[in-house]
Design brief:
Length: about 160
């Protein structure tokens, strides 16, 4: 698994140390930490759709906390795409790297939000959808890497 999210090990998720837990251990990120740990709990019990939903919540909460701590204007109900835009407008990522980070912005916008929306966030219709463990682990690892990056960039 992704080295940043060493909380995922083996076929069953277990909470261990490492960068992911240490950055979210900051009391300011208590809400995001709770949501990320809830995602792991859902994953451990085979509730993959719920795990992806909690991943997106943790990602959004992280950005809301950064916005609040930095004094950036946002609405509590802003979705991930709008929060990402606010973070970029406020140069959370330096503008001199704009070309490189346009791709990053696209990745952040289309990563965990899209996975969650397509696989676990909306009504599934007449045919039940199954979200496999591999996609769930990918979503969790992607979330962890994104959260670490944003927190480290913010200095919060």
């Amino acid at each position: 698994f992704w080295p940043y999210t060493t909380v995922l090990t083996g076929p069953v998720c277990s909470v261990k140390g490492g960068p992911m837990i240490s950055v979210l251990d900051n009391n300011k990120f208590k809400g995001a930490n709770e949501e990320f740990l809830k995602a792991h709990e859902h994953y451990r019990h085979g509730r993959n759709k719920e795990a992806l939903t909690e991943c997106l919540k943790a990602f959004e909460s992280t950005m809301k906390i950064i916005c609040k701590e930095k004094g950036w204007e946002y609405d509590q109900h802003d979705p991930a795409k709008k929060l990402i835009k606010i973070c970029f407008q406020n140069e959370l990522v330096p503008t001199f790297t704009q070309n490189q980070f346009t791709s990053l912005q696209n990745l952040l916008e289309s990563g965990i939000p899209t996975i969650r929306n397509k696989l676990g966030g909306h009504g599934q219709g007449p045919i039940p959808q199954k979200v496999d463990d591999e996609m769930t682990r990918y979503g969790m690892n992607l979330t962890g890497a994104n959260i670490i990056f944003l927190i480290e960039q913010s200095g919060v």
